[in-house]
Amino acid sequence: MEIFKEIGPLKAFLRQQRTLNPSIGLVPTMGALHNGHLALINASRNTNSLTVCSIFVNPAQFNNPADLEKYPRTPEADIRLLSEAGCNALFMPDKKEMYQTSGIIKFDFGHLDKILEGEFRPGHFSGVALVVSKLFHIVNPDRAYFGQKDFQQFRIVSQLVKELNFDLELVCAPTTREPSGLAMSSRNARLSKEERQQATIFYRTLTFAKQAIKNGKTFFWVKSEVTKMCEAENVKLEYFELADQENLNLLKNVSPTVPAVLLMAGYVGGVRLIDNMLMD
Predict the structure, then answer these.
(1) Does 12 lie in the same domain as 72?
(2) Taking the CB of the first residue and of the last residue of the chain, which one, N or C, has fewer CB atoms within 10 A?
(3) Quick check: is 111 catalytic?
(4) Tens digit of pLDDT for each residue in 178-205?
């Protein structure tokens, strides 16, 4: 696996590789890799002749400086995992390489970045869109891979690709879960053993809600029950919503003509986690 810390050498390598490899896949990450990331690497390797992974803890998408400071960083372990997974190239820039000047560009995605995560993390998706745009320009991939766990992010990036005419295919891979149902996340490393057990309430409430709605319960009733379940586990729920899978318009109930998704976020101890579940 080739490792690059600067944009110029990476672009030169990829220009050379283009003559040998008909397709390039990109897996953007912030490191602290787990099996969910490796599933994205495998998905790219199965479809493309060359796979690039990026590791960059992007300061532009953190609206909480303390959260940025505490974000787990495990570069040595990440390199080993990627090499063993068959990743071809790793891009590990520092902040100065990605933001050579103080950026002033801001993205506005209308209602897409004002609800759910956008409501509680103002400016987050503008930062995501900025760094993803940079990576798309640098790598020029044929396909880019994202996880379903960050479902709203995938919809934001989809809008970005559509409106800026990026010539690539976006792939959304299913959420990878631990045996307990807990969605794999780099933030899980900050959970204690007891908190990891508490955090399974996310999967349990999503599963409960999906079945209850299918059994005819209203979303109003389901949301009330989920709130009680989270309170019983001392989990601070920020939101639990039902939304249209395509445009993230919030829904009051399911409809046979509108594919829906359940989305939630909350705090387990001092760690903020998110999860979701498709209704189909």
Answers:
(1) yes
(2) C
(3) no
(4) 999 999 999 999 999 999 999 999 999 9
